[in-house]
Amino acid sequence: MSHFNAADWFVIVAYLLGIIALGVWFGKDQHTTKDYFLGSRNIPWWGVGLSIVATETSALTFIAVPAMAYGGDNLTFIQIITGYVIARIILAVVMVPHYFKGEIYSPYQMFGAAFGPAARRTAGGFFLIAGTLAAGVRVYVTCIPLQLMLGYSEREIGLIIVLFVVLSLIYTYIGGVKAVIWTDAVQFILFMAGGLFTLCYIPTLVEGGWGGAMAKAADAGKLHWFNGEFTLAKPFNIWMGVIGATFLVLSSHGADQLIVQRVLTCKSVADGRKALVLSAVIIFPLFLVFLLTGTMLWVYYQQFPDMPIAVPEARPGVGKNDYIYPIFIMTVIPHVLKGFLIVAILSAAMSSVSSALSALASVSTMDFVRGLAKSERDEAFYLKLSKHSTVFWAAMLVVVAFATQQVESVLNVAFSLSGLTNGAMLGGLLLVIGWKRGHALPIVAGMLASLATMLVIHAKWKAVIAWPWFTLIGCTVTIGVALVVRATMTPRKGLDQPSARVP
Asked: Number of H helices and number of E strands within the chain?
């Protein structure tokens, strides 16, 4: 802990207390599940837009994106943002109006309304399993560099995991999605400011300042950003950005409750569209800042190669280069500002965890318990259940994080699972929009076939098919199998008819 002084800890503690206080403030008006999971549908679009970006930007992004630019040859990762932007525009135009037809709590209600409860349970189950594993593993991986930065031993990482999840749980439990969104907005500002500060600070330490640093990077080819080669094996080329990343984000932002829940808190279709467009405007400069930060770190360590701390060995989910930015913060950044950058990393991490807790609780409560209940209970019952669900999912994230710590092979499976289910979720959503009504069997068969196909591809061909293409392949399989099954079916009464009941 010698790398931090009392001033650094004051900044960190003040941030944590402030975030919890913000959650308590927004928790005072929680009376119904609509308040708790939809923020009464009166949250300003700009707050939602900031929350969307904060939710998709974890501490891993804060650390790993600079690591890519530091250790890689260039900035070709930036091409993926092309698809990120295209997909948000498509969703704003096409999908947002569907979200505001009735009081929708999740996109999986649309599956139930079109194809019946089996389709709703399948889609919701995909989200709960993949979302829990991915979020739990993300907690563990985030805590590895935090453990190094805060001076704890590897044996104490369990304590960091528990504290990290509990702190995120407190304001999520009390304030619901309204607290999550407003703390997300604050946290986005903090981690963006942290990235900008580092990007501007490093050139003051190297010979030639900003101009000299950029010239050195350019001479080494570190500023090259475009790759026009078409290949399925390499993830960072313009074709992957325009096609693969577009389908990826159509799923992650159109069929995944983690992001859709934020859009559902807007007042209207127009506001939902504005929120998505704002996130599209922000996402490019956000990634550019952190990529250039990695480039500046490379320039700095070319000039000052001796690190006061040995770089830890790579671990599953955390490469050696992922430690470079944390080590720079620990050993180069002045005190107080060092505390601020730790706050920036915590902000990125906590925004992702709190968003996952709220999304998981909303699906388990509204899509499984309330949505499938034979008799309706009062709002007080479901509000209490919603809060208990939030605690349950926090415990599950801790369990997954601890399991990953003990058996790190779990990590690759969990990280992959959300990518392997994205295609099934997007394909199912497109069928909901295209078919309007029908039986559950085709869509359920299509989604399960997609998952099976992607598991085979991941096991046997992931070296020749890069991850951004997974969603497109999975989506195609889902729709293809569903069409075949539907064509072979003969109409029968009682085969899981669509439900008009919402929720």
From this structure: 21, 0
Question: Are 423 and 478 within 8 A, CB to CB?
Answer: yes
**Alpha helices, H only, 375-496:** 379-406, 409-435, 440-460, 470-488
Q: Is 316 left (phi over 0), alpha (psi -120 to 50) or beta?
A: beta
Helix axes 59-71, 269-303, angle to 10 degrees: 40
Which residues fall within 8 angstroms of residue 434, CB to CB, at 6 or more apart?
A: none
Classify the C-alpha dihedral 391-396-399-404 as positive or negative.
negative
Residue with tokens 């981690």: 191
Show Cβ contacts of residue 211 under 8 Å, excluding neighbours closer than 6 positions. Answer: none
Report whether 469 contacts 244 (CB < 8 A). yes
State the DSSP string of 208-260.
THHHHHHHHHHHTTTT--------SS-S-SHHIIIIIHHHHHHHHHHT-HHHH
pLDDT one-digit tens code per residue, 391-415: 999 999 999 988 877 655 444 554 5
Distance CA 81, CA 498 (A): 37
CA–CA gap between residue 451 and residue 432 (Å, rounded): 18
CA 389 to chain centre: 20
Which amino acid is located at 159 in the chain?
A: L
**Nearest 5 degrees, angle CA 97-CA 103-CA 108?**
75
DSSP class of residue 313 equals P
Is the bond into 503 cis (omega within 30 degrees of 0)? Answer: yes
Alpha carbons 62 and 348: distance in angstroms, whole number: 7
**By the 8 A CB rule, do 281 and 52 touch?**
no
Tokens of 163: 């504290």
For residues 479 and 47, give the distance between their C-alpha atoms in angstroms, rounded to a whole number.
Answer: 35
* pLDDT tens profile 22-70: 888 877 778 899 999 999 999 999 999 999 999 998 877 788 889 889 9
- The class level of CATH for 6-23+43-488 reads mainly alpha
Q: What is the pTM assigned to this prediction?
A: 0.92
Residue-range domain boundaries for the chain:
6-23+43-488
Beta-bridge partners for 181: none
